[in-house]
Automatic annotation (TrEMBL):
<dbReference type="Pfam" id="PF23322">
    <property type="entry name" value="PPIase_AIP"/>
</dbReference>
<protein>
    <recommendedName>
        <fullName>Aryl-hydrocarbon-interacting protein-like 1</fullName>
    </recommendedName>
</protein>
<keyword id="KW-0802">TPR repeat</keyword>
<keyword id="KW-0677">Repeat</keyword>
<dbReference type="InterPro" id="IPR056277">
    <property type="entry name" value="PPIase_AIP"/>
</dbReference>
<keyword id="KW-0963">Cytoplasm</keyword>
<dbReference type="InterPro" id="IPR011990">
    <property type="entry name" value="TPR-like_helical_dom_sf"/>
</dbReference>
<dbReference type="GO" id="GO:0005737">
    <property type="term" value="C:cytoplasm"/>
</dbReference>
<dbReference type="GO" id="GO:0005634">
    <property type="term" value="C:nucleus"/>
</dbReference>
<dbReference type="InterPro" id="IPR046357">
    <property type="entry name" value="PPIase_dom_sf"/>
</dbReference>
<feature type="domain" description="AIP/AIPL N-terminal FKBP-type PPIase">
    <location>
        <begin position="28"/>
        <end position="152"/>
    </location>
</feature>
<dbReference type="GO" id="GO:0003755">
    <property type="term" value="F:peptidyl-prolyl cis-trans isomerase activity"/>
</dbReference>
<dbReference type="InterPro" id="IPR039663">
    <property type="entry name" value="AIP/AIPL1/TTC9"/>
</dbReference>
<feature type="repeat" description="TPR">
    <location>
        <begin position="249"/>
        <end position="282"/>
    </location>
</feature>
<comment type="function">
    <text>May be important in protein trafficking and/or protein folding and stabilization.</text>
</comment>
<keyword id="KW-0539">Nucleus</keyword>
<dbReference type="InterPro" id="IPR019734">
    <property type="entry name" value="TPR_rpt"/>
</dbReference>
Length: 331
């Protein structure tokens, strides 16, 4: 076991190895996934614990260069061997307060999907990260201790490409109704595939293989978004795929479903007919979807008609108008 205090060659960071790791130091390139535990403590006599991922009962996963963009954390992890436990003292010159880390430390999705305003906008608007102690650190930064345990390092090929094949783990989470967990995994894999794709020559065989993987994951991601009622995001992502790949039948189908949910009748009908053109074997499914679309639109039109009639009756009573052609037309 190697113990001791050493400077890491980065200003404002001291490292103490509490338990040495094994093997050679991993290569931490962009897209590498790391699995680890962390504990955050104040630099006071009590070493007050702010966050502890072990309390959530599960380790944290982070993709180097992509997921949280908290550079100092990448510096800490990239100094470690697999199996190593180390304590880091970080000075105030490093930005070390992040709402996303608080959320994952207590076992939550780092992105609150029920808030459609980005965290940075919220912070400027309300001067708050949503947690009193983090707000205090944001206002008056102070040194912090981090205890990190590096559990596993996954190269891009060993995790993203594998996940993009059958998406077995994502499918399992989807069947369990764990849509937040599923979308997070899909997003990580998509980001990594796109990153690797930029290093390939566009439209050549390796690039096309990665494109197919990314599209498969994106469509699975959109299927989760449909269940989460994020219809406009589904329309955005599927449209991007269709613009690049007009033969993507599943993209037309999911976009048609999303259009139907937001009452875009003509667009939904066009997308469903495109599915039928691309795959006549979908005739039975599309016939059912078109029947549902017709029924939903008839119900909505009737509901709108009744609302408008009620509005006219209310207006008629308010103004005491004895003649209301619109009212008579609606009866």
């Amino acid at each position: 076991i190697m113990e001791g205090i050493m400077m890491m060659g980065v200003e404002g960071i001291k490292k103490t190895i509490l338990h040495g790791g094994t093997g050679e130091k991993p290569k931490f390139v962009t897209g590498t996934k790391v699995t680890f535990h962390f504990r955050t403590q104040l630099c006071n006599d009590e070493r007050t614990v702010i966050d502890d991922s072990k309390k959530a009962g599960m380790p944290i996963e982070m993709v180097i260069g992509n997921l949280f963009k908290l550079d100092v954390w990448e510096i800490l992890l990239m100094s470690m061997h697999i199996g190593e436990v180390a304590e880091f003292c970080c000075d105030v010159i490093h930005p070390i307060v992040a709402k996303s880390l608080r959320r994952i430390a207590v076992g939550k999705d780092p992105v609150d999907r029920h808030i459609h305003t980005c965290g940075m906008v919220n912070m400027f608007a309300y001067h708050s990260l949503g947690y009193d102690d983090l707000d205090e650190l944001q206002k008056e930064p102070q040194p912090l201790y981090f205890v990190m345990e590096l559990l596993k390092v996954w190269t891009f090929k060993s995790w993203a490409l594998n996940e993009s094949g059958t998406c077995g783990q994502g499918n399992k989470l989807f069947k369990q109704g764990r849509y937040d967990d599923t979308t997070l995994k899909y997003k990580e894999a998509i980001m990594c595939i796109k990153n690797v794709q930029t290093k390939e020559k566009a439209w050549e065989a390796p690039w096309l293989r990665l494109e197919k993987m990314a599209n498969t994951l994106t469509l699975n991601y959109c299927q989760c978004l449909l269940c989460m009622e994020e219809y406009y995001e589904v329309i955005e992502h599927t449209t991007d795929i269709i613009n690049q790949h007009p033969g993507a039948m599943k993209a037309f189908y999911l976009r048609g479903k999303a259009h139907m949910e937001v009452w875009n009748e003509a667009e939904a009908r066009d997308d469903f007919m495109s599915v039928l053109d691309l795959d006549p074997g979908m005739k039975k499914t599309i016939k059912k979807e078109l029947a549902v679309l017709k029924m939903r639109m008839e119900l909505k039109n009737e509901e709108d008609r009744l609302k408008y009639k009620a509005f006219c009756v209310s207006k008629h009573k308010l103004h005491g108008n004895s003649t209301c052609p619109t009212l008579y037309a609606l009866t």
